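Backbone-to-sequence.
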């Protein structure tokens, strides 16, 4: 199986279909993305969307968000998802490694990510790639 990781540059029908298939595997509450929503995401200066293809088909995505703040350029890896049919094949590793390389090339001081505690395999993957858990509090403002 050949896996190719690349940066998505346009919200074509293939990418809309891929998000329609992948996003529900990531979040049961996420709103489906149409072409204009994906275009807004791709056009935002802070975002880089990576896609992984297996035999030409998109089987995974990862969003790298980089933001300059007073303490330096910071990077976050968000919304990593690999199609259930392609899990266990190293695709998430390839996506994450590509994001880390892009962040380092841009001069990011740190690369952060979060993962739900029940996602044991994701936690092991991130630790293998050099990420370490931090003692930190994560706060989220509840929706009204």
């Amino acid at each position: 199986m050949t896996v190719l990781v690349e940066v998505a540059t346009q919200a074509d029908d293939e990418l809309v279909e891929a998000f329609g298939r992948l996003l529900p595997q990531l979040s049961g509450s996420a709103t489906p993305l149409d072409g204009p929503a994906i275009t807004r995401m791709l056009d935002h200066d802070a975002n880089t969307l990576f896609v992984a293809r297996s035999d030409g088909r998109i089987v995974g995505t990862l969003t790298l968000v980089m933001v300059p703040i007073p303490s330096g350029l910071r990077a976050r890896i968000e919304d990593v998802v690999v199609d259930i049919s392609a899990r266990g094949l190293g695709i998430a590793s390839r996506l994450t490694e590509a994001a880390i390389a892009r962040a380092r090339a841009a001069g990011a001081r740190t690369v952060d990510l979060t993962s739900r505690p029940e996602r044991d395999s994701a936690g092991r993957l991130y630790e293998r790639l050099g990420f370490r858990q931090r003692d930190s509090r994560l706060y989220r403002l509840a929706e009204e």
